[in-house]
Give the backbone structure.
Amino acid sequence: MADVLTFTDRGIYCPAGDFYIDPWRPVDRALITHGHADHSRWGMRRYLATESAAPVIRHRLGDIALDTIRYGETRRIGGAIVSFHPAGHVPGSAQIRVEVAGQVWVASGDYKTTADGLSEPFEPVRCHAFITECTFGLPVFKWTEEATLKRQMNDWWAANAAAGRTSILGAYALGKAQRLLTSVDASIGPILTHGAVENTNAVLRAQRIALPDTIRVTPDTKIADHPGALVLATPSALGGTWARRFGASSSAFASGWMALRGVRRRRAGDRGFVVSDHADWDGLNDAIKQTGATRIFTTHGYTNAFQKWLSSEGYDAHVVSTEYEGEQLDDSDDTLVDDA
């Protein structure tokens, strides 16, 4: 029996439906899991994504031929039946289920299994074969419990505000920044945002996603007018000229990589918060178990180590080479950046 999905130099391909999933080179038809730049690229003739992922994709890619689909809706494309299911990564993110002649494969894109109050919660999808990211596919990666994370961030911000310091927090402009916005206590002080973060906020607010009030940082912004502020910045803005305008400050970085002591020491900043929009070690293993799949394909991350672990657990596991990036220590998506 032929494989439902194959792995090519353009992306993950479905021969029966003649479409690609998150292709990195131009193709005729692309099914897109979510709006981050390594998964949704310009140059495809036709796109298909979830209704809630579409606004960010359109904002990034401009006037494209983009069709939308609801979560759980089935659609026949050639000889394949496809459906999109919540991945819990960022708003609108999806796992893509592909069924051909009774065989079911799922391409997960990026995902996390813990609900964050912002993204549509992850839903396991039963399948025969599962293509999984493993950005954080080592046992050392275990995320801080949500209530503890909120307390850590708010205590840090409140202490800085009491000492007359601005709090500068680095996070991805799409997904991570908005997740943190919904986690912090806005009563502590005003919240200022880098242009890339605020551009994304505007797109999500237009979808009626509730976010606290924020103030865009511009060249005219005077920090004296915003005492005790929290500034949400892109990772690349930390430690540079953009951040120095805020005077006395404390900086922090929010990332799964903060679980590694060496990274925390090397990363510019006073604090590191262990949080990610990708699954941690337990999340990856739980997600795979819940699919019921026996064939697993590992991509972008600790692929070889995770493949060996899965093989030792009895899975038919394979490493797949792709151009997806996972979570980086600097911005992987600069297409929404406004350097004000």
Remarks:
- The CA atoms of residues 253 and 267 lie 8 Å apart.
